[in-house]
Amino acid sequence: MVAPAAACRSPAPASSLRRAAMVVTRSFTPLRLRRSRRGALACAAALTQDELKKEAAWKAVDYVESGMVLGLGTGSTAAFAVERIGNLLKDGTLKDIVGVPTSVRTYEQAKGLGIPLATLDEQPNIDLAIDGADEVDPNLDVVKGRGGALLREKMVEMASKKFVCIVDETKLVAGLGGSQDAMPVEIVQFCWKYNLQRLQNLPEVSGCEAKLRMDGDKPYVTDNSNYIVDLYFKNPIKDAHAAAKAMEGMEGIVDHGLFLDMVDVCIIAGKGGVEVKERK
Ligand SMILES: O=C[C@H](O)[C@H](O)[C@H](O)COP(=O)(O)O
């Protein structure tokens, strides 16, 4: 089942960007590990962050149907979804899946699991993308890219009819930038200091500290041969749409980790259970 080209998302019109998304909680499922009331308490308390990530990932795979073209996300949460898809293909529950990986890492994992793969050039119309996030705000706008895969993720997820984001509850923030951890920006290598300075001084992200991401004693290089500047905020970004627009207008900035108006469904696994939130 391949989505028609018209079904792929296009950037939201400027007028709708500042409107708060309507987000509804569609369902709340107690954790799968709960078997009895007594057991439930014991299990929930014992769940690690990785187990919560797996809960969210497995729930997202319920959206996968045979015949779909899938965007395969990157990161520790998405890896659980990729593994699950591989296993369901192996045991015959799923058939005729084609995966479009969002990083070399995910390509290697999916290939190892025997998932048939294609590039975005070969499969530009994706039915469903499943991926993790670093921060999720109440509108289901997210920060992505702490694993360095933001550019390919954004390309694949923009080309997807539906984007299901999977997180554990530690990723929830009141406003993007609020975790006081990195908001990544992918930049060209050429004169990177010039762009780092410009990012640091950009009024729309005022007050941030910009740092070149390192890999040991060398700059970190993305799958696309670019560098990453991580922006650290003391307070949440005031207007994420304005910040995104400002960065998109800068020469040498390839892309940024603000994924706005993109997530259709967010699956959040917490100690109490798994919550499914939908953007309407
Ligand atoms: O570049 C990495 C991706 O955007 C990841 O989806 C994101 O960093 C979340 O990763 P994790 O699931 O490992 O927390």
Short précis:
By secondary structure, the chain is an alpha/beta fold.
Task: Give me some keywords for this one.
Alpha-Beta Plaits; 8 helices; alpha/beta; disordered N terminus; four-stranded antiparallel sheet; binds ribose-5-phosphate; 2 domains; 280 residues
* Biggest sheet strand line-up: 1-16-15-7-4-2-3
CATH architecture classification of the largest domain:
3-Layer(aba) Sandwich
Number of helices: 8
Instruction: Tell me about the largest β-sheet.
Output: 7 strands, mixed
GO molecular function: ribose-5-phosphate isomerase activity
InterPro entries: NagB/RpiA_transferase-like, Ribose-5P_isomerase, Ribose5P_isomerase_typA_subgr, Ribose5P_isomerase_type_A
Keywords: Isomerase
Enzyme class: isomerase
Walk me through the structure.
It catalyses: aldehydo-D-ribose 5-phosphate = D-ribulose 5-phosphate. It is an enzyme of class 5 (isomerase). This protein is of the alpha/beta class. It folds into two domains: 24-172 and 260-279, Rossmann fold, CATH 3.40.50; 183-256, ACT domain (Alpha-Beta Plaits). Helices cover 28% and strands 26% of the residues. The chain is built from eight helices and 16 strands. The chain has helices at 14-17, 37-46, 49-61, 76-90, 104-112, 150-158, 192-200, 240-248; strands at 23-29, 69-72, 98-101, 126-131, 135-136, 142-143, 160-168, 183-187, 209-212, 214-215, 218-219, 227-232, 253-256, 258-259, 265-270, 273-279. The strands form four sheets. Strands 1-16-15-7-4-2-3 form a seven-stranded mixed beta sheet. The longest helix is centred in the N-terminal third of the chain and has 15 residues, at 76-90. It is globular, with a radius of gyration of 19 Å. The two termini are 24 Å apart. Ribose-5-phosphate (R5P) binds at residues 73-78, 131-134, 144-150, 153. Ribose-5-phosphate binds next to helix 4 and helix 6.
